[in-house]
Amino acid sequence: MKTRAVSGTLLLVAGPIAASAAPPISTQALDPEVMALHTSADLVAKDVGLSSKGEAVFVLQNRGDVGINVPVRGVPNKAPAPGAAPKIKVDVYVDNVLKASVYQDSLVGKGTHPFLVPLQPNVPKCNEQRTLKVVVDPQRVIPELHDDNNATTQPSWRPCPDLAVKSIVRDAEGVAGEMYRAKVTIVNKGNAESPATKVWATALTSAPGINGWPDLSPNEPIPALAPGATVSFKTGGSNFSTAHCWVRVILDRFSEIEEQDEGNNFIDKTL
Question: How far is Cα 74 from Cα 54, in angstroms, rounded to an integer?
Fold first, then answer.
């Protein structure tokens, strides 16, 4: 125990006199870009690419908190007068050639709007590459935080479906599996959804012979298939497990679907 005299008074001190703790100081600097977006609009194009039908697709995004051509804040029923503000214009180029100009009336803060632009003529074919360029507000008539991020260029490939026969197998029937029918499984091997269609399929209990396959055969409807999805159905009548059957399957018989591989739409198999 220490003693200390202060102005004639004896003090007892248990240890060193601690200094009062200073308030913590924040070392995290405010991001000026984030702060500026709170008081501005900023238009960009994102997710630029080609659809499965060969259309240009992209999303118009307002990165800022301030809307463009939207009702005045605090006065919900009062919108800008018609013609008071220009629409948002977007130019779409394919291989550096202007193909279309599209417009958006307004866009709220932090809002997005998707676009789908047909590319007629010369629609890209399956797996064909095109260079897309999307330029937002090309004349720079809309006040924005940035004008140097209004152009987006993206090499893009057109995705396409690819229907194929995954398997043709015996599907047992009867009490002891003494019968079977031909079970066909179709798969979409492509990278885009295939539309609903019909499959030409038949199964004969005897070899086709000299007369070949019958002209009239059941058309089996199948639903739209996402990439990698499958669907199965049975074709033909019941057969004894000791007997063979001859199966023929033709996909997209009349070439109505653009596919990645048109050479895998036909198959014959003996079970």
Answer: 43
Residue whose C-alpha is closest to residue 200's, from 235, 251, 234: 251
For residues 268 and 207, what is the distance between their CA atoms, to the nearest angstrom?
11
Does pLDDT of 6 surpass 50? no
Instruction: Please name each of the domains of the chain with its CATH number.
Output: 36-74+86-157 (2.60.40.10), 163-270 (2.60.40.10)
What one-character-per-residue DSSP string does 225-266 give? B-TT-EEEEEEEEEEETTS--EEEEESSTT--S--S-GGGSE
- For 159-173, what is each residue's pLDDT tens digit? 999 999 999 999 998
The span from the CA of 52 to the CA of 147, in Å, is: 31
Model pTM score: 0.72
Each residue's pLDDT tens digit, 30-84: 788 888 888 899 999 999 999 999 999 999 999 999 999 886 655 544 555 555 6
- Alpha helices by DSSP H, the chain: 32-37
Where b means 16+ CB within 10 Å and e means fewer, 46-78 reads eebbbbbbbbbbbebbbbbebbbbbeeeeeeee
CB 114 within 8 A of CB 57: yes
Among residues 70, 68, 73, 66, the alpha carbon closest in space to that of 40 is found at: 66
